[in-house]
Amino acid sequence: MSQGATLRRFARDQGGFSLIEFMVAMVLGIIVIAGAVSVYVASKRSLTEVDQVAGISENGQFAMQMIGYSAKHVGFFGGTYFQDITQDGSLGTTIVNDCTGDAAAYDTDTSLLAMTVGSDNTAFGCITDARENTDVLVIKNVVPAPIAADPNDATGNTFPAGSIDPETTYILANTEVALMIDGADTLPDVGAGATYALAAAWPYNVEIYYVRDTDTPTLSRLTLGWNGTAMAMQRQDLVQGVEDMRLLFGFDTNNDGTADTMAGDPNEVGSTDWDQATSMQAYLLLRAENDDYDYTNEKTYTLGDRQVTPNDTFRRVLLHADITLRNPRILLRGGA
């Protein structure tokens, strides 16, 4: 075979793809790439959903635990009935941003109170930024960390040095009587034979939980504390993303210690007595901090006797807890 014939045959054997072959290969490549992109997008969307729901759930559990812990201690005043608490004559009555009516900080006659926020976004005269149509919860008690008299004091009528905080309000209580007093004032004798014999000093606590109306709705609370110059109801932002809170209470209308009707307010069951509340159902609706334009939320969430249908692009989680109000139940069963 001549050299020229060999070159022509080599050139023919080395020919490229035809146009049809190239187009088929390109179509197959596009299909493979599209499939990979589809899997990636689906995986990313699923990861985003899982991440958001997990974050919302974790925040919601924390919020519910805080509310539940506070509610379980409502009305606890160191073993003394609220009727036996008196106020020290030197106790300051001026509290910065104090609430009004039964929600007033030093009013221990009412240790549990709730209301639904209206269109003015206000509640109890001390909250001005609450989210409309959400509930507000007032809880009063003492912190279960009593300070006892100094065992090394032979007279038994003094407290250990530095144990009483001058910027805290206390309820000095034994099993019979109790005194609300400023820690900066001189505490009465708690020695044997005295009016407040063997009394312990319990730090007094007031908490008001509500949903604050901000760009990202937030579970907040007002607490009683020292603001640097005076006692005040001060705001703490607790959990972002809580956009609704509904509270229903089990009321014991026949005073046998067992709830027989459920409502959001005692007026709904023909009563005005919050002391008849022995249990609480708490509903929290939380939303993700950021919306997702690939997602449309058309779900309807049932918060007890209230339904919410957002119809937007935020993912949400609804949490519910049944809480026993132990101290009011004990008082009712004891005939107090």
UniProtKB/TrEMBL annotation:
InterPro entries per the UniProt record, alphabetical: N_methyl_site, PilW
Keywords per UniProt? Membrane, Transmembrane, Transmembrane helix
Q: Does the keyword Oxidoreductase apply?
A: no
An example GO biological process term is: type IV pilus assembly
Pfam families associated with the record: N_methyl (PF07963), PilW (PF16074)
What residue ranges are annotated as transmembrane? 20-42
Taxonomic source organism: Halioglobus maricola
UniProt KW Transmembrane helix keyword: yes
Q: What is the protein named?
A: Prepilin-type N-terminal cleavage/methylation domain-containing protein
